[in-house]
Predict the structure.
Amino acid sequence: MLSPAISLAAMDHNAKNKSADVCADPSQPAQLKCAPAPSSVFDHKGRLWVAWSHAGHVYVSRSDDKGKTFHSSVVVNKVPEGISARGENRPKIAVNDAGRMYISWTMPLEKRFTGHIRFSYSDDGKNFSEPVTVNDHLEISGHRFDALGVNKKGDVYLAWLDKRDRDQAMSNKEKYQGAAVYYALSEDGGKSFKPNKKIIDHSCECCRVIIDFDKNDLPVILWRNIYGNDIRDHALVNFLSKDQPGEPVRVSYDEWRIDACPHHGPDMSIDDADNYHLTWFNNAPERHGLFYARRNQKDNSLTAAVNFGNYKAGASHPNVISDENHVWLVWKEFDGKQESIWLQHSTDQGDSWSRAEQIAVTTSAADYPLLMKDKDDIYIQWQTQSDGFRLLSVAR
């Protein structure tokens, strides 16, 4: 049974009882503790980088001591613009081994449920390129819920949910369910992107999209798809080459029929043996709650989906990370009074699991927990209104 040694590094915040007041004061300067939905990553030197937004700007903050203190924040986009920053749709950050940093975000437009995919990069974390719009369809339409991935070769991938084909179908008075999944590839470190390519029609229109890389350094993309008459299960696609996706395959079979988007996307981590660890939420009458399954590299078979978390406490937004034979799951629950995050751990690639452990609680509003890795160390990022950004270290 796992008994994780959890240490808390709470950084960039004042006394807890003052945090909410400071964040509500528009005259105060931008502060990480007030960020609504940050994303973070460790670079190859073990430095922590956090991307977050405030008042029309994306900021990057760096910590050299695992989040105890932070250097002054740096502005990515000098000209303010709309920035989606809540739950399933937040700024993203990636850093390659050479130290180049990549930032992406969704810029909402004046019409509801529309947006552009935006991107910038930096070689020093201080000076960022002029942001560019990655979607090459520039009409006011839905290009949202971006996923950012950078492989070891330095290829940059962005995938997102796109409604250009839905708009065209509607103008032709044709039926079109949901959105489509599109992607764009940069082979020069983000300086330019090749033309957008579509992976599939009829994806769910507002759930997070996930990118990871297989043993061949090719992208694998996971999303919530629409099957048949509004069944919202999940699909993934392997790339056959760096710019050629294969045929998407279905990876969950919960048969959740809903004519709406649950804002509740999946997550994926590919381990050293090239097995895919998948987790998701569905709310079908007979199969509901959080699920985990492994797609085996040897024959592409799926293990039986394992249900976890307390459904009655609203277990939601699971996140997964793997390292060698170890797999960790983290998620959020709410008991009517306080938000809490929970953790389960497997030492045999997901064949068996420890007892679920409550890691942290708060009575304030809270973001989803996100797992991250620094070499052999595993951490949980959790942003709460009372404490700001917190970094939890998880023992094996």
Q: What stands out?
A: Residues 16-24 form the longest helix (9 residues).
